[in-house]
C-alpha cells in the first residue's frame, strides 16, 4: 500500500469515526444536544428528540458511505455539518475554545474532499 492510499484510509477512518461517534450519541439522545436544538430552533423536547434521532441516523449512514465509497459532494456536506455543529457551541454560550477544539470535525472531511479532488485532476 503506497503512502497516498494510507493517507486516504487514515482520513476515511477518521471522518467515519467522528460521524459514527457523534451519530451514536445523537441516536442515544444526548441531553445537552436536545437542549441546544430546543434553544436554537424553538421546539419542544419531543420534536428535538425526533430531530436528533434523524440527525444521528444520517450521521451514521454518511460515515458508512465514507468507508464503502466516498462521494465528493457528501464530503463537502460533512465538512459544512462539522463546521456548523462546532459553531453551535459558542452560539449557545459555551465558548469559542469548544469550537476551536472541534476543528477536525470539519477539517478532516474537507481534507478528504481535496485529496480526491487533487487525485482526479492529476495533481
Describe the 3D structure.
- This protein is mainly alpha-helical.
- It has one domain (3-120).
- The chain has 6 helices and no strands.
- It starts with a helix and ends with a helix.
Question: What's the gist of this structure?
Answer:
This protein is mainly alpha-helical and 123 residues long. It has helices at 3-27, 31-41, 45-68, 72-91, 96-101, 103-120.
Instruction: Round the mean pLDDT to the nearest integer and report it.
Output: 95
Give me the number of helical elements: 6
Helix content: over 70%
Strand content: under 5%
Shape: elongated
The major pleated sheet works out as: none
Instruction: Describe the oligomeric state of these chains in a short phrase.
Output: single chain
Break the fold down into its secondary structure elements and pairings.
Elements (H helix, E strand, L loop, with lengths): L2 H25 L3 H11 L3 H24 L3 H20 L4 H6 L1 H18 L3
List its traits.
mainly alpha
Amino acid at each position: 500500500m503506497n503512502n497516498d492510499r494510507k493517507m486516504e484510509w487514515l482520513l476515511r477512518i477518521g471522518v467515519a469515526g467522528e460521524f459514527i461517534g457523534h451519530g451514536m450519541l445523537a441516536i442515544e439522545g444526548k441531553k445537552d444536544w436536545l437542549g441546544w436544538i430546543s434553544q436554537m430552533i424553538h421546539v419542544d423536547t419531543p420534536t428535538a428528540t425526533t430531530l436528533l434521532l434523524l440527525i444521528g441516523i444520517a450521521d451514521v449512514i454518511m460515515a458508512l458511505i465514507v468507508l464503502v465509497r466516498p462521494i465528493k459532494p457528501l464530503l463537502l456536506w460533512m465538512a459544512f455539518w462539522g463546521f456548523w455543529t462546532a459553531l453551535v457551541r459558542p452560539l449557545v454560550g459555551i465558548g469559542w475554545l469548544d469550537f476551536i477544539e472541534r476543528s477536525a470535525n470539519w477539517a478532516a472531511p474537507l481534507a478528504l474532499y481535496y485529496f480526491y479532488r487533487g487525485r482526479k485532476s492529476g495533481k
